[in-house]
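Predicting structure from sequence has reshaped protein science. With that in mind, we have picked out one protein's residues alongside their backbone shape tokens:
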Amino acid sequence: MSRRRSLVGRMVGLVVGAVTIAAIVLGAGFLAFVATVQRFDSTPARADAIVAMTGGSQRIGDAVALLADGWGDRLLISGVNETTTPEEIARLVPGRQDLFECCVDLDYRARDTIGNAVETRRWALERGFTSLIVVTSNYHMPRVLRELESALPDLEKIPYAVEPVSLDTRAWWRNSTTTRLLASEYLKFVAVLVRTSVRWDPPAT
């Protein structure tokens, strides 16, 4: 009986130790993830084209502004809802209808970040682009860049991070909503790291 109790005690100790180590690793990884998010900025650089991921009008507005200022020659807005018309998208950026008529493409196929990467690859390869400005929220940028690196490893990707007005990543611990959002995005990013380490090239959609 004492031997069995000793064995159970060792097993419990091993489990507790493993859980503790996993918690420390995840916690350290989360802090590193937040630090990466904080380092992203919105300094533009010239590229062949621009891709913006849907998820907020601020992303689209900033991407159109980059296009208008000549930082890229064409813009893809990826992940547009299938019920949203081009006119509705254009109304998010008043006074820039001319750009939507000549230089903006809308992707209705992507339903998630993997889809964004696949459709961006399709669009970039068809048009022969070798560099892209990537526009999305700062907390979403690590996952997007990882997916794009998986889909387009030879293409230069220049991050242009948008920080939502309601999201303060510098003092994330003060707001439970921000903390939950960053934690959720971190776990999704970890899942992408695991998936792309097993299968680098994303499946076609």
